[in-house]
């Protein structure tokens, strides 16, 4: 239920007072190396799920670990009146390589002083353990002050988000009645610079691994070079041919379903005064790559892309080895927008690759994920309430924005549960998620918890 | 000194009788993992050099280990009359990865029965430990029967051949007086099918590592994909542009100094009846790649090539990671012929790479080797004597052939020591040198030892 101003201030004060303890709890969770893509860490994923069940139970939720063929889900409920709110986060994290680029053990997190303020350093601090804990800690403070949890909540934590979410759709379908809600709060996104933001436009993702095989063994390039086909060269041709000279993707039909930005949205985004030099400068770049006729913000939020996420083949060790390799492989992903159909694009991509194969080269494809883009409908009045609550906490008007990353769950909430997804998160551009030295600002954590208190009061 | 027929037969009989012991000694040497390119095995390289010094000393050579900044040389002398013969081999071996493709521990060698006969299986069995030991064992049998070593010999073993021979030229220059000989016997090549062969045409090698850097850290392809430059894509463009649609290399001036095959050599090579379907079939291929207007044998022996020996970048582990990588790198090598100048081609290559770099991408080059091709002058009568000795042993007329691989030492003997190099080896096409499951036929080892006995008798 909504809190009056005094009660709200009391809960917020409680958040401030418990911050050191909230931080300790997050550190405990960060110490669990729950890397979902690597089977070696399956036990740790399970341990992270157990840890969350225990925490949620301690606060008063009815919490349980729910098995899947891979890593378990965590689902927790609280009784109450008012609208049913679903909260989603993921407890799994990205791999940590290259480990040598980390300044500390990725799973020995620490609060660090930096010129820009205090940061929580460690794998998963921003993506997504720090973020999901903002909600848990908001509920804890609420309960401590009011004696009850904030209304009718369902918490839903996934452990496979960073490895393609293989169990998510089946689990949502099987448990649709239990998970269906009036609104789904998803905390896995960021602010726009220093502006708090609700993401209403999300790109989809298609991931494909391509493995080429030429000779049936590695050859000596002295004996065979020039006469035996080299699969690295074939792969390079394939990758080089995926874009034209204007940065457009060449697959036939690729741009079917890609909408032009509405004039209204274009005007709104222009007001955000996105500084691409600044955005690129933080990572050592200066010139926007990509489509030559699009603005940087369009490219990140509303245009489809094709990237090579990894490539491998032949001798990669120290020194030189004049091998002519048998195999070469690449991990390639497409960001999708509008109504682009991931299945059609997968077919177009595989056809394209096959059309470029010379004699004697075989191809194997591995599918890694396929989710369409999603466009959130913001007519639900909960959006405007949440936007105002965010604006109050950060003392800056919150914005509706797009996001470059894919959060397939947003689309699943819409299509499977018919529940509007509301994406609110407190990550910063320089959090280095998926990279070495990932961090989460202490401010993101602290004001994130406070933000959820305000939003919960506004929505319940 | 030359042996008369009876004495020669005695020495050959001694080779046959001592074969089991000769094999045991080779196995000892093969058990030392002397991988020269990987600093972790520096101690093993040193151990292999010590082992050779001990063996040569035991036979009666004046042998010593000679330090270099990296791995030691082994030099041994025997006193005698007649022409001064220099024998060269290398005791270092290639790395063994991918280890999982080996059917046994690469450094636990074994004699195996195969449908095609007995083979010695293990890293270095063919390249080059088995080959250099054919000469050592020939000297041992000669000494056992005649009481002396076969004349005025210098043995010269290198330990850096598989890692670009950084110490070789300085060492040869410093010790030119000691190493200068009437002819240099080099045992690091193969037969032509079942035909014993002397290689008179050798390609040179230029090795270049290219490391591209875009952003100063790995990025998330959701946040930065489309606007941040991807160095894997840049590298793919660079590699794709190195060849035109006819398989020719596009670097300006690349074909300067590439000679056309003489009619005489073309005719001789045609007589060899090279079966490219058979050659490619042994490694699971069927169609010659490469220049569309050249015969397969030309492409392997007398045409320059450009190959990618390794490529690396982004996430290469199991599963998928939507990283937009900071770095991508490739190891690229050129095989050179005629009077192609490795330094000019290095410059042309680096200029080409730089010309293809978009804004914000930096390049670093690492040089790995640069040696011109060499053409051996066979007018020295020693060549015809050796060819006849080989023909006697194998009961097939021996041939003068080309070789696709680079053996820079052949050029160095010519240019630094003014000594004619004679390349004779007993490797087979299916030895899988530089690859998993390397082997050396027991017949190559046995008849290789016998061949040297005959050649030594013919030349001394
Ligand atoms: Zn995430
Ligand atoms: Zn060799």
CATH level-3 fold name of the largest domain in chain A? Aminopeptidase
**What is the beta-strand fraction of chain A?**
15-25%
Q: What structural class do the secondary elements of chain A suggest?
A: alpha+beta
Superfamily (CATH H level) name of the largest domain in chain A: Zn peptidases
What's the total helix number of chain A?
A: 15
Number of domains of chain A: 2
N-to-C CA distance of chain A: 5 Å
Q: What is the total tally of β strands of chain A?
A: 17
Give the largest interface pair and sizes: A-B, 98 and 99 residues
Question: Largest beta sheet of chain A, briefly?
Answer: 12 strands, mixed
- The oligomeric state of the chains shown is homodimer
Going by CATH, the architecture of the largest domain in chain A would be 3-Layer(aba) Sandwich
Shape of chain A: globular
Q: What percent of the residues of chain A sit in helical stretches (DSSP H or I)?
A: 25-40%
InterPro entries (chains A, B): Cyt/Met_Dipeptidase, Peptidase_M20, Peptidase_M20_dimer
Protein name (chains A, B): Peptidase M20 dimerisation domain-containing protein
Keywords (chains A, B): Hydrolase, Metal-binding, Protease
GO molecular function (chains A, B): metal ion binding; peptidase activity
């Amino acid at each position: 239920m909504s809190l009056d101003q005094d009660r709200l201030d009391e809960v917020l004060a409680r958040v401030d007072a418990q911050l050191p303890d909230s931080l300790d709890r997050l550190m405990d969770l960060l110490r669990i190396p729950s890397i979902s893509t690597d089977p070696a860490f399956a036990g740790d994923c399970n341990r992270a799920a157990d840890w969350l069940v225990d925490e949620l139970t301690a606060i008063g939720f009815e919490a349980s670990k729910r098995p899947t063929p891979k890593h378990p889900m965590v689902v927790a409920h609280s009784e109450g009146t008012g609208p049913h709110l679903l909260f989603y986060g993921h407890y799994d994290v990205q791999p940590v390589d290259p480990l040598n680029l980390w300044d500390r053990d990725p799973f020995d997190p620490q609060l660090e002083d930096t010129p820009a303020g205090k940061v929580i350093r460690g794998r998963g601090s921003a993506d997504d353990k720090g973020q999901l804990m903002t909600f848990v800690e908001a509920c804890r403070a609420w309960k401590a002050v009011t004696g009850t949890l904030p209304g009718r909540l369902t918490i839903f934590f996934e452990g496979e988000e960073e490895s393609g979410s293989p169990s998510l759709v089946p689990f949502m379908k099987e448990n649709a009645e239990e998970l269906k809600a009036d609104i789904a709060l998803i905390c896995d996104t960021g602010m726009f610079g220093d502006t708090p933001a609700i993401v209403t436009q999300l790109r989809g993702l298609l991931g494909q691994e391509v493995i080429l095989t030429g000779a049936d063994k590695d050859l000596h390039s002295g004996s065979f070079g020039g006469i035996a086909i080299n699969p690295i060269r074939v792969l390079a041709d394939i990758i080089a041919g995926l874009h034209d000279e204007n940065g457009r993707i060449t697959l036939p039909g690729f741009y079917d379903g890609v909408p032009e930005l509405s004039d209204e949205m274009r005007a709104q985004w222009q007001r955000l005064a996105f500084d691409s030099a600044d955005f690129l400068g933080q990572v050592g770049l200066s010139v926007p790559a990509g489509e030559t006729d699009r603005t940087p913000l369009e490219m990140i939020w509303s245009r489809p892309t094709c990237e090579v996420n990894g490539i491998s083949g032949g001798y990669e060790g120290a020194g030189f080895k004049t091998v002519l390799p048998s195999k070469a492989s690449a991990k390639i992903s497409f960001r999708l927008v509008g109504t682009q159909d991931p299945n059609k694009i997968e077919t177009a991509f595989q056809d394209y690759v096959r059309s470029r194969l010379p004699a004697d080269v075989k191809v194997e494809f591995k599918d890694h994920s396929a989710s369409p883009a999603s466009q959130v409908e913001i007519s639900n009045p909960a959006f405007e309430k949440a936007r105002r609550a965010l604006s109050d906490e950060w003392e800056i008007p919150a914005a509706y924005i797009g996001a470059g990353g894919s959060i397939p769950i947003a689309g699943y909430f819409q299509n499977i549960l018919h529940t509007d997804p509301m994406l609110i998160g407190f990550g910063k551009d320089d959090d280095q998620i998926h990279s070495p030295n990932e961090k989460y600002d202490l401010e993101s954590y602290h004001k994130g918890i406070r933000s959820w208190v305000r939003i919960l009061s506004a929505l319940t």
